[in-house]
Amino acid sequence: MLMTCDRCGYRGEGEEFRHVGNVMCCGPLVFRECPRCGNPVICDRQEMREEIENTAREISRRVEAAISSGDTTQAKTLLKDLSLLNQCLNLEALQEYIRSRRREIRRLEKNPTNP
Ligand SMILES: [Zn+2]
User: Does position 104 have pLDDT exceeding 90, yes or no?
Assistant: First the structure.
């Protein structure tokens, strides 16, 4: 299967792209790394866009749950996944969401007992 890197436009067989990991550990989405520039690439983005969007929504829900229970470590891990997903989706709204949640996490870490 041919894959294309969004960042540098490199095209190659899937095997050339090193396997980086799955989103949310057990999720269906697999990240691979572009052999030329190291950009994370998700295979077949057009076909998988809907699935990626669904996964992004699911991760956002988990971010909210992690933040409301004060688990900033978990929230940060989830936001990292989310920002990788957004390299595929390129949604400005999602980018803004990630930024605002990161600010919220920093605030929580500075002042964990005072909501
Ligand atoms: Zn590349």
Answer: yes
pTM of the model: 0.66
How many whole angstroms from 98 Cα to the centroid of ligand 1? 23
Pure H helices in 14-91: 45-68, 72-89
The count of domains in the chain is: 1
Spatial distance between the Cα atoms of 85 and 4, rounded to a whole number of angstroms: 16
Least confident range of 21-30, 44-53, 105-114: 21-30
* Residue 5 CA to ligand 1 centre (angstroms): 5
Domain enclosing residue 14, as ranges: 2-110
